[in-house]
């Protein structure tokens, strides 16, 4: 969840509801832990699976709602938004990308408009153009990242701030052996 | 031999992936914010600059252009220090789930005499220097700055980046102590 971290943090400051899309059931727990790690550490955290369970948590608790029935949950949320207005801390709804919950959300325009600014889709936000970054590096350094690091490892790179910056960049861009 | 044992422990530190490192560091930043030591926004800014799909390497840092390791976090409410700035940087190989490199660094000036200082805990990405004694893989630089002598590398036990952050902050603020003694005279554990 790369650049979406800041978007999650911002959404967490805006109760009562936010939605996070995720790619695979196997990633759900990890995504939930990621959101919890971005939240204010003084907030208690509860994992729940229904709207009623989410609403039964204290208003200052971070409720992580992973619905067993995503479609029905979205319909319930759409019909009961008023029940959430007193939340001091958001309820975070996790929906599987391409699942029944995301499809139901697309058909619930009023709910969608309500949560749109708090709808987090990491796949749309996490773009990094590796090829462009390598080309930029080669323009700056006159070498590939691998060539630069080989020189550094031979002690042929000076310790200037500019060289240090290029070294850190090269460490990020250095390909594995089969790609170098 | 202690130095080789230490090097083995330092290498074992690398066996961890991005989620754990990012989450634990963010939690520490959140606690610093709750304690009034930094802006809450930094918890959400401890982001990953990039995930390079080719190299599968990921950086964890405060995005910014002030240094190769990102922007510092200005700290507050550390009375003995003026203008303390904290840098956090980690480089991970997501393909191998390995921590390649990290830096947890704090710069500031002692309020009493305005003398600058830097404390920097660093895990090197490779073996450097003469050996495990002269250049421990995980070490700490302490001094006026990075350029002036003494430029000793103090060996440290195998601390994760977040444990290094706990250690560093606790040196400056006992209120951050993560492992308080239970009582005077009691056993350490």
Walk me through what this model shows.
The complex is a heterodimer of chains A (180) and B (189). Chain A is α/β, with parallel strands linked by helices and 180 residues long. Chain A contains ten helices and five strands; from the N terminus they run H-E-H-E-H-E-H-E-H-H-E-H-H-H-H. In chain A, helix 8 (130-141) runs antiparallel to helix 10 (161-173). The longest helix of chain A has 13 residues, at 161-173. In chain A, 34% of the residues are buried. The mean pLDDT of chain A is 88. By secondary structure, chain B is of the alpha+beta class. Chain B has helices at 2-12, 18-34, 41-45, 161-172, and strands spanning 46-52, 57-62, 73-74, 81-93, 98-110, 116-123, 138-143, 153-155. In chain B, strands 1, 2, 3, 4, 5, 6, 7 and 8 form an eight-stranded antiparallel β-sheet that branches. In chain B, helix 2 runs parallel beside helix 4 (161-172). Chain B is globular. The relative contact order of chain B is 0.17. At the A-B interface, helix 1, helix 2, helix 8 and helix 10 of A face helix 2, helix 3, strand 1 and strand 2 of B.
Distance between the termini of chain B: 26 Å
Global structural class of chain A = alpha/beta
- Main beta-sheet strand count, sense and barrel state of chain A: 5 strands, parallel
Strand content of chain A: 5-15%
Weakly predicted, low-confidence segments of chain B: none
How many DSSP-defined strands of chain B? Answer: 8
Helix tally of chain B equals 4
The chain-level mean pLDDT of chain B equals: 89
Judging from the principal axes of the Cα atoms, what is the shape of chain A?
Answer: elongated
Supply the key terms.
heterodimer, A: 180 residues, alpha/beta, five-stranded parallel sheet, 5 strands, 49% helix, B: eight-stranded antiparallel sheet, 24% helix
